[in-house]
Each structure stands twice: as structure tokens, then as C-alpha cells.
Amino acid sequence: MHALSTCLRTALAGGVLASAVAIASPAAQAADNPASGKGPAAAAAAAPSLTEIAARLPKVGPQDVIKLAASQVGISENSAGGGTKFQEWYMTSPRARETLARDGGALEEYENAPWCDMFVSWVGQQLGIQPVMGSDAYTVEHARWFADHGRWGRTPKPGAVVFFSWSGSNKIGDIQHVGFVVRDNGDGTIRTVEGNTGNGAVEARTRPAWQVAGYGYPVYPAELAS
């Protein structure tokens, strides 16, 4: 099985979501991040923002993500660290070719690679919201994708993508693991669903909040109309 610390980049790993419909330009990112200081004129001339993209996606909300993620609890890897449907899906996805082009390596290396972020990406793809959740095999670059789109913070929310650094660092470069927030327990811990944890399985866990480097907040289509 893969130790949790191996959710780091090895010979290959993922990065920001780069397909034409899925990624916003820097100006469009400003529309999702008012703190950027860039005005609406620049954003208007750019590609659609994540909010605009979300408006065209299935009306999925945080509880839909939590329900699907939780339904996968118990799925585990084989003795080589592979064999999950999450790795198999990622290897057949266009995103895998993009990350290979960026990071090098060979496609078959994903077969037994750490899969915590592949699990997160699979959930987004299954529900049709991958463009606003991001897709990756490398936790650090996935976190950067959220930060680049102004969707990064320190508040645990149901359905947020939670990024862990076991040392307690809040630096994106120190991130080692990823999962989904189920709830804030209100006692300094959070309840999560994670892939590639424990003995290399999807599990529900209770984690101390001090191990969280930060949270990525997908733009949930169901919340746009609320």
C-alpha cells in the first residue's frame, strides 16, 4: 500500500486543470477573486469564469459530493498499490495526457501511483463538475489551482476539498494528502472522506484541524441559485 506521505509528486504527477472549457484565464480568475484588484473590464474580455462555467453544469451541491465519496468507502488497492477504479479512470482521461506532458514519465506509472487526488478528481468527473473542482494526481498543483482561482481558504465547509500537511504547515508546497470535508465537528477536528488512506483504501476519518494546510472550494452549481 502507499503511505500517506507518498501523495507527493514522484516521476509524474498532476497540475492545474488545463482543458479549454475547464480553466479560466488570469483575467477571468479575477472575476472569481475580487481581492485580485483587477477590474471587471479585463474579466469581461476573458474566458468564462468558474462561476459562469458552473452555471452550465449539473445542479450538484456539496451533499451530492459527500454522498458519492462516502459510497466508495471500503474500496481498496491491491498489494502493488494499484487496481482501483480511480487509477484506471485517470489513466484513460485526457487529463492524464496533460499531466504527462507537463511532468514526464509514462502513462502506466499511474496504475500503481498514490491515488488520493485521483479519487477526488473521479468524484468531480462522475458528477459532471470536474471543470469547477479541478482534476489532478498531484495534491500540490491541485491546491494551487484552487488558489489561482481565488477558491482557497482556511474555513472547513461541507464539500470543500481538504489538503493536509502532516507537519501542520499551511504552505501549499508542503501538502501531502487530500480528501473531502464532511463536516466541521466544532471541537478542533473535521470529519472527512479520503482515498488512499489507512491501509490504502477509501475511508471516513476524523482529523485534527491543525493538520490542514488549506481548503479548496469548488463552485457548486446548486448553490448559484440559492
TrEMBL record:
Residues 91-219 form the Peptidase C51 domain. InterPro entries: CHAP_dom, Papain-like_cys_pep_sf. Pfam families: CHAP. Transmembrane segments: none annotated. It comes from the Bacteria. Residues 1-30 form the signal peptide. Keywords: Signal. PROSITE patterns: CHAP (PS50911). This is CHAP domain-containing protein.
